[in-house]
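Q: Please design a sequence for this.
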């Protein structure tokens, strides 16, 4: 079986819908947008995608659920992702889990499956939770401590037998013991970077006045984990962040009561920030800190990697050892890995460095 790739099976749902104005409702796409999003926006290469059918989950019959389970039972992959509508997601998940062919191989082999979807379509919706849920799903699929068949929604990971949707809020609630993400709360420190850029009206992008990340996590993600958000500044990381700025961030980390911290920042100098925090916090640090960012801003295009990177980072946050980590493109970067040349193309790096020199000239 293939352990290096994730097999994605698309069955429709809101995540793979588009808004049809004449009918004033969301209708299923003809083909999945998930594969293109992962390949082009996130640049995540390790996925093989297949469309089984494109249906609103309310139209997915028991026979169609069996069809999905049959397909999962026969594919030669160890990690599998099923995207579906949320209304019948619990039923689809339980049908797959109880399929004799799935149950046999999942019990005897190291195989895992995650179901996910979204509350808003990914296609042409600038603030969909779809990318976030995909990122967290990829993170969960890498972990051996979660159950074999789970669902990821609203910042939580649920064993499918415990999966319940609250139709009044259109969310999946967190009952004690149900969520397999191993933290109850986290702190968010938003420092800017491309993730928090906005159009300046002159065909360019500038740092926003305040971070958009807290609002995104509250709606549309509707993250059920409690978090405290701090936004000391919003900077382009190519600017020279002063020692005073770094000391301020370090103080904020030291004052946090939680051991789980997510920091959003610019990718260009993300390694420098990681090294600074690692050195200052020292070997006695017992906090789990993840730095992430994005190539494109949150909320200005449906093809931004920002939602995926946020979801992946929060998915990994509870499973990593204490320390300062960098999470981008579905990957935790080792200390000796070249982040810039992995995330960007040579031409993109050239443009970024050219703009960086302009910043330094004006300081």
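A: Design:
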């Amino acid at each position: 079986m293939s352990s290096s790739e994730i097999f994605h099976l698309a069955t429709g749902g809101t995540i793979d819908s588009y808004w049809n104005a004449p009918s004033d409702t969301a209708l299923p796409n003809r083909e999945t947008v998930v594969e293109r999003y992962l390949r082009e926006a996130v640049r995540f290469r390790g996925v093989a995608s297949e469309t089984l059918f494109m249906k609103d989950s309310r139209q997915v019959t028991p026979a169609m659920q069996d069809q999905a389970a049959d397909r999962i039972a026969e594919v030669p992959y160890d990690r599998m992702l099923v995207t579906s509508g949320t209304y019948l997601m619990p039923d689809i998940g339980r049908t797959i889990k109880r399929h004799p062919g799935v149950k046999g191989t999942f019990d005897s082999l190291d195989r895992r499956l995650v179901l996910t979807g979204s509350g808003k379509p990914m296609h042409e919706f600038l603030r969909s939770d779809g990318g976030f849920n995909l990122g967290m799903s990829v993170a969960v699929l890498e972990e051996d401590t979660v159950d074999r068949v789970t669902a990821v929604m609203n910042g939580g990971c649920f064993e499918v037998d415990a999966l319940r949707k609250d139709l009044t809020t259109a969310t999946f609630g967190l009952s004690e013991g149900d969520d397999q993400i191993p933290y109850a709360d986290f702190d968010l420190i938003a420092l800017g970077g491309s993730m928090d850029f906005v159009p300046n009206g002159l065909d360019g992008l500038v740092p926003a006045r305040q971070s958009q990340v807290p609002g995104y996590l509250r709606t549309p993600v509707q993250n059920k984990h409690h978090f405290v958000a701090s936004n000391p500044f919003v900077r382009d990381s190519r600017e020279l962040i002063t020692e005073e700025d770094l000391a301020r961030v370090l103080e904020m980390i030291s004052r946090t009561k939680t051991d789980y911290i997510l920091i959003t920042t610019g990718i260009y100098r993300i390694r420098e920030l990681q090294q600074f925090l690692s050195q200052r916090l020292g070997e006695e640090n017992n906090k789990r800190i993840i730095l992430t960012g994005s190539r494109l801003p949150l909320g200005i295009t449906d093809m931004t990697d920002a939602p995926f990177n946020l979801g992946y980072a929060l998915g990994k946050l509870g499973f990593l050892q204490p320390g300062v980590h960098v999470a981008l493109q579905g990957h935790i970067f080792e200390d000796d890995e070249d982040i810039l040349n992995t995330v960007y193309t040579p031409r993109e790096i050239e443009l970024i460095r050219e703009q960086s020199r302009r910043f330094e000239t004006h300081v």
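Q: Thanks. Anything notable?
A: DSSP finds eleven helices and 18 strands in the chain. Residues 2-172 form a domain with the Rossmann fold fold (CATH 3.40.50.1170).
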